[in-house]
Amino acid sequence: IQFSDRESALTISDFTMANLSQEGLTNVLNKMHRGKNNQITDLYPLSPLQEGMIFHTLHDQGDEHVAPYIVQLSFMIRGKMNIPTFEQAWKSVIQRHEIFRTGFVWDEIEEPVQVVYENIPFKVNKEDWRTMTSEEIEEKRKVFLALDRKQAFQFDEAPLMRVTVIQEGEEEYRIVWTHHHILLDGWSLPLVFNELLTVYQKRMNGEAVKLPKSSPYKKYIQWLREQDKEQAEQFWREKLKGFTAPTLLGLESKEEEKGYTEKVTYLSEEQTQALQGWAKRNKLTLSTVIQGAWAYLMSRYSGENDIVFGVTSSGRSTEIIDVENIVGPFITTSPTRIQLMD
């Protein structure tokens, strides 16, 4: 299959991790090259988490009240800022971490795959609101953030992220970074920001940028493929034996619109110390105490003594070399079962 002078004919032997036929590979390459001139460097499967995110994103398409897995971060930078240098710093980060140069394909092939490009075009969007009053800026910001969050990403169009710099004052810049959760998890955020600011500062100082070689997200997919699925299934079947239905809270919801919200509660210093002390005396972690309290609450609401709920963890196995520095989505949500005594 010849797509460009740079890219020779590719076969399934070039992508050993992808479970594709030659016809499936042809469909992927045709789709990902349509109207583009970007060389493909790798193909490999998705993680279960990524597959789930694609499913739910497609399932909720068209619902104006839901923006599934769209992550939007907004923050201010005060002081002089060189936007072209900031853009170059982002390009360096994108080039170092292949997850940012990745698109996703799932139709007309044997299994979904992620497609890594050698290079992708990227630019920082710019807005200038300096002529507006503070009240006008606040109102425009609300509208901008809402519209930006609703703007969906095309899974086969890398990068699945955008960055906007809004100049609100002479030395006031609002940065809005919006991306799909399929690219990275919360652990990855400080890795990206630290690298971005390091590159930006060095470029501003005219210094050479030398960063250690980054490990690709592919290492995690390879590790997943090496796990014993039958053993894992047997473990969970035994763990959940006898549990037949989800735990229902028994609360009626009058809300007709879809969406989500959150409530944050802060404990006082005295309450925190008391809770930590109780956990220590009973040789429990604070996480175990919170999970036990949640199970008790669910039992009171549902009237059940056999409770199952999901617990999210980092998913970064120590078996993977340099896993703590890999940018990508690793989090896993596993069922936790707690049987309360009468």
From TrEMBL:
UniProt-listed Pfam families: Condensation (PF00668)
Boundaries of every Condensation domain copy: 42-340
Coiled coil: none
InterPro entries hit by this protein: CAT-like_dom_sf (IPR023213), Condensation_dom (IPR001242)
Biological process according to GO: amino acid activation for nonribosomal peptide biosynthetic process; lipid biosynthetic process; secondary metabolite biosynthetic process
Gene Ontology cellular component annotations, sorted alphabetically: cytoplasm
Gene Ontology MF term list: catalytic activity; phosphopantetheine binding
Name under which the protein is recorded: Condensation domain-containing protein
